[in-house]
């Protein structure tokens, strides 16, 4: 592979072509400032690239080669582009072009979608983050991408879209939620709670606890019922949380109460419940 990289680099320089060549996790990546970054699998190179003139073809037209590779279903163009190592020496616009190209593929791989959404957030491209999250869910329709979409919408979207996203998420059996789906769901529930959307938060949390005994969903469900002044239900879930993590219960209760202060209408109720938890 090192020989291939050197040959391509040498030919690029000889032809005054502005191209960088990198090797990331068994994938060769060609990129420059004006073209879509092009990952090429090691197997494709060893099988297809045999003559010198083929190297020149490879270097002259990234778009044609990208289309050819996608049609042959040999690789997913976005995964190496959005790899953290690759991002370090690439610009956001190139990654955006690559993702837009990936949208056109009928059967893209899953690699890279989440990393690209994170990159959108870092660049404050929040509308694009939501757009990609929607596209990912449309492509893959799994709990992970449903939860990811909710996670983006609760931060950067509107309430109507968030309600619709949560409805889609809750249609999946909780047994199908992997770790990422659970984590995105928990984070979405907390952010919904923090923004005053108690019923939306409660719907997600009640789904999670169907199959998972977890401190944070239980304590947050307690908060949801406290916002409804339902002391008995709140205390029930607080005690479940305390049984799982007695050392953190009061600390987290106090910390969360400060964060939710602007939504609390009955502070006396919170003080009463805290004393019962001691």
Quote the average pLDDT.
78
Radius of gyration: 25 Å
Termini, distance in Å? 64 Å
Order of helices and strands: HEEEHHHHHHHHHHHHHHHH
- How many individual β-strands? 3
Strand order of the largest sheet: 1-2-3
Task: Note the topology.
Layout: H1 2-14, E1 20-24, E2 27-31, E3 38-41, H2 42-48, H3 52-60, H4 62-71, H5 78-81, H6 84-87, H7 92-103, H8 113-122, H9 126-140, H10 143-156, H11 159-170, H12 179-194, H13 198-208, H14 215-227, H15 231-244, H16 249-259, H17 267-277
Antiparallel strand pairs: 1-2, 2-3
Compact summary:
The protein has 278 residues and is mainly α.
Protein described:
The chain is mostly helical. Among the domains are: 1-77, no CATH class; 213-278, Serine Threonine Protein Phosphatase 5, Tetratricopeptide repeat. The protein is 67% helix and 5% strand. It has 17 helices and three strands. Strands 1-2-3 form a three-stranded antiparallel sheet. The longest helix is centred in the C-terminal third of the chain and has 16 residues, at 179-194. Residues 33-37 and 39-87 have low confidence and may be disordered.
Give descriptors for this structure.
278 residues; mainly alpha; three-stranded antiparallel β-sheet; Serine Threonine Protein Phosphatase 5, Tetratricopeptide repeat; elongated
